[in-house]
Specification:
Elements: E1 2-3, E2 7-10, H1 20-33, H2 40-46, H3 51-59, H4 66-83, H5 93-102, E3 106-110, H6 115-125, E4 133-135, H7 148-157, E5 164-168, H8 171-179, E6 183-187, E7 202-204, H9 207-212, E8 221-222
Parallel strand pairs: 2-3, 2-5, 3-4, 5-6, 6-7
Antiparallel strand pairs: 1-8
Helix pairs in contact: 1-2, 1-4
């Protein structure tokens, strides 16, 4: 049996765990705490970007500024304390990663989350010990939609761009993968529609849907001649 790719790069928020609304809520709560009014819907549509990109997009503030830095710090504390304990895995997330591993792929997490958030999120997904490696925003100079995190994940996977496929749920995943020269499979589970995920080589409802149809997906194994 042969594989079309060597490595599968997994986004995590919205792809393996149902956390996108929680991230938006944490950001909104942090902005409000500091007297900054933001549009929750706009914040929600920016989830998937790194915080350095999200903050100026929704508030005009620079994350490196004194106020921006404090908001970002409080957002992390609010997310970990108020929301992280209640986040659930998306259905069949662990089973999908296990199926990918069973097919001989190298599995690497490629997330815009901070490392101290990524580890518990992978644990919630049941994928912490299934991943061969993980990259977070701490491993990249620029966050998604810049390609840095995907490039770092490729390095961890020891794979060339054409040897990998990414799985993600936002247009920022599509942009980051495309800029890195990596094909991407899109999931609707993060709240984005097919038009938003344009550029993906295939689109599924979520991990359960791809798992059910894996033999007809880009992750299928082909017979050797």
């Amino acid at each position: 049996m042969v594989r079309a790719f060597k490595a599968v790069l997994f986004d995590v928020d919205g792809t393996l765990v149902d956390s996108n609304d929680a991230h938006a809520d944490a950001w909104a709560k942090a902005f409000t705490k500091h007297g900054v009014q933001v549009d929750w819907i706009k914040v929600r549509r920016c989830i998937g970007m790194g915080g350095d990109k999200l903050m100026p997009e929704v508030s005009g503030l620079d994350e490196a500024s004194p106020q921006g830095s404090k908001i970002a710090e409080d957002r992390g504390e609010i997310f970990r304390h108020d929301f992280l304990p209640h986040i659930k895995s998306l259905r069949d997330a662990r089973e999908l990663v296990a199926a990918v591993k069973a097919r001989g792929y190298t599995a690497v997490a490629a997330s815009s989350a901070r490392k101290d958030e990524l580890t518990p999120l992978l644990k919630i997904a049941g994928a912490e010990w299934l991943m061969d490696a993980a990259t977070s925003s701490d491993d990249a100079e620029e966050s998604k939609p810049a390609p840095d995190i995907v490039v770092a994940a490729l390095q961890r996977a020891k794979a060339a761009p054409e040897e990998a496929v990414m799985i993600g749920d936002t247009p920022y995943d599509v942009a980051a993968a495309t800029l890195a020269g990596v094909k991407i499979i899109g999931f609707r589970s993060g709240g984005w529609g097919d038009a938003d995920l344009a550029g993906a080589i295939a689109i599924y409802d979520g991990p359960w849907d791809l798992l059910e149809r894996i033999e007809d997906s880009p992750l299928r194994l082909a017979e050797t001649s």
